UniProtKB/TrEMBL annotation:
Keywords: Oxidoreductase, Pyruvate, Thiamine pyrophosphate
Cofactor: thiamine diphosphate
InterPro entries reported for this sequence: DH_E1, PDH_E1_Alpha_Subunit, Pyrv_DH_E1_asu_subgrp-y, THDP-binding
Annotated signal peptide: none
Name of this protein: Pyruvate dehydrogenase E1 component subunit alpha
Highest classification ranks of the organism: Bacteria, Pseudomonadati, Pseudomonadota, Alphaproteobacteria, Hyphomicrobiales
GN (gene name): pdhA
Cross-referenced NCBIfam families: PDH_E1_alph_y
Domain of life according to the entry: Bacteria
EC top class, as a word: oxidoreductase
Originating organism: Rhizobium lentis
Length: 348
């Protein structure tokens, strides 16, 4: 794990400054200026990309399903900052942020969303079905919970090959109630597979709150019957995610088997693009946005420490907006796949 802050000497009487902690009391990584700036930029890229995807959907350029990741950015960015080259990522359908965090190109993701030829699945997969072997991203899955078993297979392969890589399987609080998750937990624990199971607890599965749907809402305990340890993490604080990621990846790499990280997070937008949002109040969403926004947290620290000025941060935002605007222009100019491609790249 990253070293925790030690007490600093001050001329005032109350000398020792307590080590920073996440909102749930958990440890946070001690980010330097470069790490804070990197986290800021990466999270902003995801947010601006998702805002643009939402706009394009409204304009009719994106069809079918589309689930935005706005609010949850700290989870994938904090994890990615701890991963090593070769570690694999697999997730569900709320996947654009995961792809951008792995370094997949905004152009290729946007072209896929709009069903164009240069998309990662040649315009035939759409929002929920994209892959990049080069970036070790294994999708993009619409069947709730299926990626947990597939991710366990990736970890099995790592173990079999002895390549030292760790698989990271993301799933939601709703998916955590699926049966195949527990079949996977059993095998992963039995064979000590190198996998980090990440429950992205954003409090809702479509319109159903965790309070209404789940008997054990502390998802970090869900592996206890199999002897799989778990940690509850403030998933809105990218430093807390990084600290937990370091610990979890080390756990897996040292041969101790699987581990669960429950990320306490929140999605600001609807479940998908059509969501009446009757299941929660506007005040609840507003409270999270104003008190725990992952990007605003980093911004406030950068300013407070004098590590960046408002102008510096505006310049980063402009850069990111340019990348996103370019991806949208590229996607709209790119042709749709030819009709002759209807039966290529698919299993019949
Ligand atoms: C096996 C299966 N059952 C039901 C659905 C319909 N469905 C799509 S998303 C979803 C909710 C999942 O919620 P959660 O796991 O919390 O993920 P989130 O959308 O919050 O990211 C459901 C029930 C599905 N796609 N697959
Ligand atoms: Mg959920």
């Amino acid at each position: 794990m990253a070293p925790r802050k030690t007490a600093t000497v001050s001329s005032r009487k109350t000398a020792a400054k307590p080590a920073a902690k996440a909102s749930n009391g958990g440890p946070v990584a001690d980010f330097d200026r470069d790490e804070e700036l990197k986290a800021y930029r990466e999270m902003l890229l995801i947010r601006r990309f998702e805002e643009k995807a939402g706009q394009l959907y409204g304009m009719g350029f994106i069809g079918g399903f589309c689930h935005l990741y706005i609010g949850q950015e700290a989870v994938v960015v904090g994890m990615q900052m701890a991963q090593k080259e070769g570690d694999q990522v697999i997730t569900a359908y709320r996947d654009h942020g995961h792809m951008l965090a792995t370094g997949m190109e905004a152009r290729g993701v946007m072209a896929e969303l709009t069903g164009r030829r240069s998309g990662y699945s040649h315009g035939k997969g759409g929002s929920m079905h994209m892959f990049s072997k080069e970036k070790h991203f294994y999708g993009g899955h619409g069947i709730v919970g299926a990626q947990v078993s597939l991710g366990t297979g990736l970890a099995f392969a790592n173990n079999y090959r002895g390549n030292g890589n760790v698989a990271i399987a993301y799933f939601g609080d709703g998916a955590a109630n699926q049966g195949q998750v527990y079949e996977s937990f059993n095998m992963a624990a039995l064979w000590k597979l190198p996998i980090v199971y990440i429950v992205e607890n954003n409090r809702y599965a479509m319109g159903t709150s965790t309070a209404r749907a789940t008997a054990q809402s502390n998802y970090s305990l869900r592996g206890s019957g199999f002897g799989i340890p778990g940690i509850q993490v403030d998933g809105m604080d990218v430093r807390a995610v990084k600290a937990a990621a370091d610990e979890a990846l080390e756990h897996c790499r040292s041969g101790k088997g699987p581990i669960i990280l429950e990320m306490l997070t929140y999605r600001y937008r609807g479940h998908s693009m059509s969501d009446p949002a009757k299941y929660r109040s506007k005040e609840e969403v507003q409270k999270m946005r104003s008190e725990q926004d992952p990007i605003e947290q980093v911004k406030a620290r950068l300013i407070e420490k004098g590590w960046a000025s408002e102008d510096d941060l505006k310049a980063i935002d402009k850069d990111v907006r340019d990348i996103v605007a370019d991806s949208a222009d590229f996607a709209q100019a790119d042709p749709e796949p030819d009709a002759s491609e209807l039966y290529t790249d698919i299993l019949l």
